[in-house]
Amino acid sequence: MKPYKDLTKKEPEKKLTYRLKNKAGKGGGGRITVHHKGGGVKKLYRDITFNQEKIGQLAKVISVEYDPNRTSFISLLEYSDGDRRYIIAPDGIKVGDEIICDEKAENKIGNRMKIKNIPVGTQVHNIELDPGRGGKMIRGAGTSAKIMNQEEKYTHLVLPSSESRMVLGECFASVGQVSFPEHKFIRIKNAGANRRKGIRPTVRGSAKNPVDHPHGGGEGRTGIGLKYPKTPWGKPALGVKTRNKKKWTSKLIIQRRKKKKK
Q1: Of the chain's two ends, which shows fewer C-beta atoms within 10 Å, N or C?
Q2: Is the pTM of this model over 0.85?
Q3: Domain 2-182, CATH class in plain words
Q4: In the prediction, which pLDDT does 262 show?
């Protein structure tokens, strides 16, 4: 695939990598809490900076690298004081480009600034929800939010899900779209590729025993035998709203996401 050809051929920055222990989908008690996880190839975790540590310092892009832990590419920055940091690479950034993080900066791909100072119609990513807490939204490959309106202390955004929401203007966001938009076209060619990613085989609930899944049991190829689908723990599944009604960010949502027509 062409995007991989443009990546920098170098080892990851040693000071910004460390090993993560494979939990194999198990919780603190040793029991499986997430099914179909386990195994996979060993990989180093890259320490990504999602917040704004070097405000006002100019940074130069040293490399654009592949990260096995996320869908997008990452960029290695070298700041004017010699310090190096990894960030999520925006689409179109190249080695040698200079970017900056400041309260107000040039509207250029890769620059990070307060969202109230970004012009209407600009695509942004790695957006904060709480000032100073670091980017929480729009971090997946090819995603971006669009600034629709600036209103007093809030900025109106349209998210990739078509949801409209308000974000405090004091929050930081990075200009541009997240890199590697072609990621959605990747197809898993064989079972081994999934196993190398740490994804174990998935078994239908109806093929299990009643003790293992609410859909289990019966003779032959039977249906689920219930009024509605359930999870292995007996909770409603498929189409059931799971968002906490008391979540504090709910008051900032202007319009919920629209359902796609089949």
Answers
A1: C
A2: yes
A3: mainly beta
A4: 61
